[in-house]
UniProtKB/TrEMBL annotation:
<dbReference type="Pfam" id="PF00072">
    <property type="entry name" value="Response_reg"/>
</dbReference>
<feature type="modified residue" description="4-aspartylphosphate">
    <location>
        <position position="56"/>
    </location>
</feature>
<dbReference type="Pfam" id="PF02954">
    <property type="entry name" value="HTH_8"/>
</dbReference>
<keyword id="KW-0597">Phosphoprotein</keyword>
<feature type="domain" description="Response regulatory">
    <location>
        <begin position="6"/>
        <end position="122"/>
    </location>
</feature>
<keyword id="KW-0804">Transcription</keyword>
<feature type="region of interest" description="Disordered">
    <location>
        <begin position="401"/>
        <end position="421"/>
    </location>
</feature>
<dbReference type="InterPro" id="IPR001789">
    <property type="entry name" value="Sig_transdc_resp-reg_receiver"/>
</dbReference>
<dbReference type="InterPro" id="IPR002197">
    <property type="entry name" value="HTH_Fis"/>
</dbReference>
<dbReference type="InterPro" id="IPR027417">
    <property type="entry name" value="P-loop_NTPase"/>
</dbReference>
<dbReference type="InterPro" id="IPR058031">
    <property type="entry name" value="AAA_lid_NorR"/>
</dbReference>
<dbReference type="GO" id="GO:0043565">
    <property type="term" value="F:sequence-specific DNA binding"/>
</dbReference>
<dbReference type="InterPro" id="IPR025943">
    <property type="entry name" value="Sigma_54_int_dom_ATP-bd_2"/>
</dbReference>
<dbReference type="GO" id="GO:0006355">
    <property type="term" value="P:regulation of DNA-templated transcription"/>
</dbReference>
<dbReference type="GO" id="GO:0005524">
    <property type="term" value="F:ATP binding"/>
</dbReference>
<keyword id="KW-0010">Activator</keyword>
<keyword id="KW-0547">Nucleotide-binding</keyword>
Amino acid sequence: MSESGHIIIIEDHEGNRAAFKRALTRIGFQVDAFEEAEPALEFFRKNRDVMLIITDLMLPGGMDGLGVVKAAKEIDPEVAILMVTAHATVETAVDAMKQGANDYLTKPVNTFELRQRASALVEKRMLSSRVNELESRLGETFGKIVGRSKPMEAMFRQMELVAPHRSNVLIVGESGTGKELVANAIHEHSPRKDEKFLPINCAAIPAEILESELFGHERGSFTGASARKLGKFELAHKGTLFLDEIGELPLEMQVKLLRVLEQREFMRVGGTETIRVDIRLLAATNADLELAVQESRFRSDLYYRLKVVTIKIPPLRDRTGDIPLLANHFLQGFAQENGREGMRLSADAMKALVRAPWEGNVRELRNVIESMVVLAPGEVIGLRDLPPEILVAEDRAGAAVGQEEQPAEAAGSPQDGTAAGIPAGITMEEIERRAILQAIEATGGNRTKAADMLGIGLRTLQRKLKEYKLAGRLED
């Protein structure tokens, strides 16, 4: 690619075509010129470094300049287009701009003006590319965690403060928010970064073998123990041990874990030798451990031992400004993995992603992007390529916006002090509580039906039920 930019010229007049190419080549542009639209567009599909297309309005063959604009924008929405015509009218200019042209010139073309307009468009396109590249990297400010919203910046600062120390850290966040990524990033920024980082999911291991997984066992200690096995605590010596879903740890194992954290030593199952370890413990949960302590499902002494420092990961709905960064980050990665480099999200598709509820958080967004990369037929991912659940959420969001834009008179009469039957002065929390209560009664207490009626996700409804102390009114 030329440092000054790559340009395509589509002009059927041979003399003009040669003059345009000569004028732009002399100021450093890489220029390829074509007589007709179709071969030029085929060249464009294969050469994605093209920043500007200069096209005549009237062209031979089956496609005119307006067709070139539309087709080129479908291939690359960011490409700059300069229309050249001897038939310029206001209507022509408007049509060209509507299709996506950035500027136009009338014939006969002044060489100086051509160079000026082309240089300005290429410079703007290069600047846009640099901005997009910078934005795609801004999120990776702490390990592999993508985000530059205020909630994420606050979390990054907290991680930077806690990473160099040995203190236990409890990472709290909904399912899919990336708790293991946070734990790994803390390890990578700690003095233990050259040692092992060992994750273990407490919910994924049967209770009867969990002790062996954590502390190891001696040969013959139980049926099937044919050899000595080292546990995760021993393997993580000098490094970091990450216990995910710590809230699922059985009570008897909580006692043993507390002892290890206090004494820094343990014995393998069936063993008699005390083993001392130097580890840093990071734990994570998507459960309410304070509630679990109140209900005697989790030991309070272990809870306070674990939460020396607590890092809360914000759910994706609380940092929607990060969704474009995340979406582009995942898109670039999956496109490269699947040999589909150059894929892009249309503006409408990106808007729909931003407005989706993302009950599954970043993990759900990642899976949706991967699916679209595999299934989308073209290089530009549009609304038609989005999964049905995202389109349903977009329809609901659009309907909500439409309701907000209704005139005040349509919502109720100001004279009676009500709006749609809601008494004046009532709080938004009470309105929400009443709406949930009505949905509960209308569906006979069915969670799924109540969530559908309210137009929210099941997880959101469950959180609201707990908040408004309405959980007892629903079926399991």
